[in-house]
Amino acid sequence: MKTGWWALAAATLSGGPALARAPSAPGPVQTVRWVCEAVYQPSRAVWPRTVELAHDAQRVTAVRIDGQAVYTFLVEGTTVFTSQDNERIQFDTAVRSWRSDFRGLAQSQGRCEPTD
């Protein structure tokens, strides 16, 4: 039985029913891919960014930004916090948004849509 990407992502990120009944072994890892159109200020440049969240029935297992794996990430509710190079990134699956900051020198915000 195939479950929709939104239900899996929401349950995995929010600690919903999928986490309440912990299976004896994690299920297969699935990946949800998002494309975000981030507008960077002050230049107003639009950069398409991709976010890939790999998860099983219990938790997010890996995060990739623009095809590059990040070393660490934190999941709080529906938001994933991470960084890549000098950019601090917040990705929210419920609001479908991207926010980032280049150590105060430039900021971005954007809307995200799933590709699956």
Give a description of the structure.
The protein is mainly beta and 116 residues long. It has helices at 5-14, 17-20, and strands at residues 30-41, 45-55, 60-65, 68-69, 73-76, 79-84, 87-92, 97-101, 107-114. Strands 4-3-2-1-9-8-7-6-5 form a 9-stranded antiparallel sheet, covered by helices on one side. A hairpin with a 5-residue loop joins strand 8 (97-101) and strand 9. The relative contact order is 0.22. The model is unreliable at 1-23 (pLDDT under 50).
H-E string: HHEEEEEEEEE
Q: What order do the strands of the largest sheet run in, or round the barrel if closed?
A: 4-3-2-1-9-8-7-6-5
In helices, the fraction of residues equals 10-25%
Q: What integer is the average pLDDT? A: 83
Distance between the termini: 17 Å
Instruction: Please tell me what the overall shape is.
Output: globular
- Beta-strand portion reads over 45%
Number of helices: 2
**Uncertain spans:** 1-23
Global Rg:
15 Å
Entry summary:
The protein is built from two helices and nine strands; from the N terminus they run ααβββββββββ. By secondary structure, the chain is mainly β. The model is unreliable at 1-23 (pLDDT under 50).
How does the SSE layout of this entry go?
Blueprint (H helix, E strand, L loop, with lengths): L4 H10 L2 H4 L9 E12 L3 E11 L4 E6 L2 E2 L3 E4 L2 E6 L2 E6 L4 E5 L5 E8 L2
Antiparallel strand pairs: 1-2, 1-9, 2-3, 3-4, 5-6, 6-7, 7-8, 8-9
Could you name the key traits of this structure?
single chain, 116 residues, mainly beta, 2 helices, 9 strands, disordered N terminus
